[in-house]
Amino acid sequence: MDAQVSGMTMMAWRVRRPGPIADAPLRRVSTALPRPQQSELLVAVRACGVCRTDLHVVEGDLPVHRPGVTPGHEVVGEVVEVGAEAGDDFAVGDRVGVAWLRHTCGSCRYCRRGDENLCPQSRYTGWDDDGGYAEFVTVPAAFAHHLPAGYSDSELAPLLCAGIIGYRSLLRADLPPGGRLGIYGFGGSAHITAQVALARGAEVHVMTRGSRARELALELGAASAQGATDPPPVPLDSAILFAPVGDLVPVVCQALDAGGTCAIAGIHLSDVPPLNYQRHLFRERQIRSVTSNTRADAREFLAFAAEHHIEVTTPEYALGEADRALGDLAAGRIAGAAVLLA
Ligand SMILES: [Zn+2]
Ligand SMILES: [Zn+2]
């Protein structure tokens, strides 16, 4: 790093005290640039997506892993420094993606069998380590991503969590070829995942509360769009629950056809009410959770995005407006996936 960069300070947001977004839990600070470890890259942030998980970190729905953490795990930036042991996959000047998963042990039983998303030693950007609501961020080179061409920084950012986690959720939902997919909640992740499913020949039905989100769903090619608890016009082979609302689990189960699968995409879900075996589960309906993602999921999804252009609706905010962006997300005022621009 040159002397000019090492003497610099940067702007970053930190979680002062987790709590409702209306109580201003984030604080904007001026702080020294982070120093990359030998295996890491230092990245100048150009865009960072605003994910519901950031809201869960900021509002305290998730336990504190690092007091005063800087949120943000959908970073598109430029490599400005490569650690001595960071390999040669990335060079200074490269465009790079920093996503949610940033460390796994590589040796536990889950890692060894290819389920690194279940590694108990896993670490996450913007929760265990500082993330991209800042001008600079570090990332272990082994967990950094090359990004597909043909997208702006702003369009790429939401692909890095909304896109990747949505992709894993779609895999977990076991959608048969040409099958009927129900999508519950239609925010950033859902609007990307719907396009992946449509590109694979699915018939997509969207259940969501916002009228703008329903309009967006129909514009993107959904076969139908209705209210959050309305029954879809046909029984579903698969469903993905994106809304973090446990009360919707029985609603989704009742919409599933025999043998159907519901994948729950969120990291946080409010309590699920009691289920009735006959009405909600019998005839081999299944409920599955989705936990983070593997690097293989990320690579597969980013390769898909390179081959099929995904329309990403990205309301843009300045980096200095992160608190306002999260407030809009909490209030359901965002159609698509919000992005902070540095
Ligand atoms: Zn492990
Ligand atoms: Zn996320």
UniProtKB/TrEMBL annotation:
NCBIfam families: adh_fam_2
Domain Enoyl reductase (ER): from-to ranges: 19-340
Gene Ontology cellular component terms for the protein in this record: cytoplasm
GO MF annotation terms: alcohol dehydrogenase (NAD+) activity; zinc ion binding
Entry EC no(s): 1.1.1.1
Catalytic activity: a secondary alcohol + NAD(+) = a ketone + NADH + H(+); a primary alcohol + NAD(+) = an aldehyde + NADH + H(+)
Name of the protein in question: Probable alcohol dehydrogenase AdhA
Cofactor: Zn(2+)
Gene3D superfamilies found in the cross-reference section: Medium-chain alcohol dehydrogenases, catalytic domain (3.90.180.10), NAD(P)-binding Rossmann-like Domain (3.40.50.720)
Protein family (similarity comment): Belongs to the zinc-containing alcohol dehydrogenase family.
